[in-house]
Design goal:
5 strands, globular, mainly alpha, three-stranded antiparallel β-sheet, about 200 residues
């Protein structure tokens, strides 16, 4: 039984994930007006496209971090550009690969810190250097987070620290606020990814 307060947030999350997945993989996407718009699947070149100089992205570890980044987070042959506090200002422009990796990581680790081992960190997360791996990681992370939400009862929504995600204020927030925050992360990064796809198509 989904708590009544959670139901609309869960519906919103499902809609945002479905729309983003369709926007990235095709063959059609929700155009926003109830009609389907044809869209081709994203390519590796598009996934890694740097539209301006000194973008943050995902990179091979052997290449080292990009401009103004101090490290490559994650495990495996690839990592995502990050910087220690204080973060660079203005914030670096980020590629689709960076944004999608960020989304997949936060969903995966938050799910673990809600209904899993509560031990995963960014150092445990495998960063993908290709679009197929990046989209798959997002789908897996979204599925894990959804499962964690469905398992949360009414009392959990008001419980401070129900999610112990270590890279935010989750441990100090009622869980319902964390759920809202994750939705806006998917919505706003999803919109950014969609815009970058449009810009890539029209890059001339």
């Amino acid at each position: 039984m989904i708590p009544p307060r959670l139901a609309p947030l869960l519906d919103q999350f499902d809609f945002a994930c479905e729309r983003l997945s369709g926007r990235m993989t095709g063959p059609v996407m929700d155009s926003g007006d109830g009609t389907d718009t044809r869209v081709g699947p994203m390519t590796d070149a598009e996934y890694l496209w740097e539209p301006v100089p000194d973008c943050w992205s995902v990179r091979r570890r052997t290449a080292g971090p990009g401009a103004r980044a101090t490290a490559l987070t994650g495990q495996g042959d690839w990592g995502r550009d990050v910087a220690a506090h204080p973060h660079p200002w203005p914030p670096p422009f980020t590629t689709i690969a960076w944004r999608l990796s960020h989304l997949a990581e936060l969903l995966t680790i938050r799910a673990d810190h809600t209904a899993g081992s509560r031990t995963l960190t960014r150092d445990d997360y495998a960063v993908s250097g290709d679009v197929v791996g990046g989209v798959d990681a997002f789908d897996v992370g979204a599925g894990a987070w959804r499962k964690a939400l469905v398992g949360a009862g009414e009392a959990a929504l008001d419980t401070v620290g129900y999610c112990t995600y270590p890279h935010g204020s989750d441990a100090e927030e009622p869980f319902i606020d964390v759920v809202w925050w994750v939705n806006q992360e998917v919505l706003h990064h999803g919109a950014e990814i969609a815009l970058l796809r449009d810009l890539y198509r029209e890059r001339g």
